[in-house]
Amino acid sequence: MSLYSVTSPLPINMERRRTFNPSRIDGLQLWLDATKGLFDATSGGNPVTTDDATVARWEDQSGNSNHFTQATTNDRPKLKTYIKNNKNIIRFDGVFDSMQKTAIFTSQPYTIFFVFSFASGGRMMAGIVNNWLFGSWNGKSNRAFNGGWVFEGTSTSTAFQLATFKCNSSGSIYYQNTTQFGSSGGTGSPSGLIIGRGDAGTNPDKEPAAGDICEIVAYNKDLSATNLTLVNSYLNSKWAVY
Fold it and tell me: CA-CA distance, 148 to 120, in Å (whole number)?
């Protein structure tokens, strides 16, 4: 099922596409954009702009200061320049690299958009406290789990994709490139997010994944079909995913 067929949202004119950014929708909690807000210290420090430089702090553009950080030098991902649609991405090595933010998305509802590519390994995005994963696990590149499978995954593709995970009090839906792939009655939340690796609860540093992350946009709301379309159109126009 395509997002664009759900409740038949009104067409979006080109001016709205051109001027839209995620902050125009209420409930924005997290916005990580690989083209900005990268620093070499967890407290800030110097901007990271050169290819292969490590990233200690990825600043949240939502205005909520939900910055992702990595204090251990050897565990920091790298900036790679001009990789996707002539834009920079953040690369995780599948061995040590990860970044995290505690105490975020501790309950539903939430809607999370994730532009990434998966090369190999475990979890590109995971919960810190709860057994929750989004994007990849165990060699599959399109999975979602929040206490139970929303979608178990079928693909081993290494192509860039735009994945969406929606959850409210009635259940969850997983989309890949605007097409619905799975749903469940699960209502679990991550209770803190880690990217590049993760496992349930007491083992957040297990199951590393190799891959690239372009952008993460997340809301503490179950977005309407119209707003899903707006965010997906913005991300696809920027990253040329599908």
Answer: 22
143-179 burial, b for 16+ CB within 10 Å, e for fewer? bbbbbebbbebebeeeebbbbbbbbeeeebbbbbbbe
Question: Which residues lie below 8 Å from residue 223, measured CB to CB, with a gap of 6+?
Answer: 25, 27, 111, 166, 231
pTM of this structure: 0.92
Token duo for residue 69: 């950080």
CATH classification at residue 42: 2.60.120.200
Q: Which residue's entry shows tokens 């309950």?
A: 107
For residue 57, give both structure tokens.
Answer: 């702090």
pLDDT of residue 19: 82
Instruction: Confirm if 58 and 80 have CB atoms less than 8 A apart.
Output: no
Indicate the number of domains in the chain: 1
Domain ranges, residue 186: 3-239
Residue 93: its H or E element: strand 87-93
Dihedral of alpha carbons 238, 164, 226, 67, sign: negative
- CB distance 146 to 186 below 8 Å: yes
119 and 211 in contact (C-beta within 8 Å)? yes
- Mean pLDDT, consecutive 10-residue stretches, the chain (242 aa), reads 40 55 97 98 97 98 98 97 98 96 97 98 95 95 96 97 98 97 97 90 79 98 97 98 96
Owner of token pair 């205005």: 63
Rounded CA separation 152/165 (Å): 13
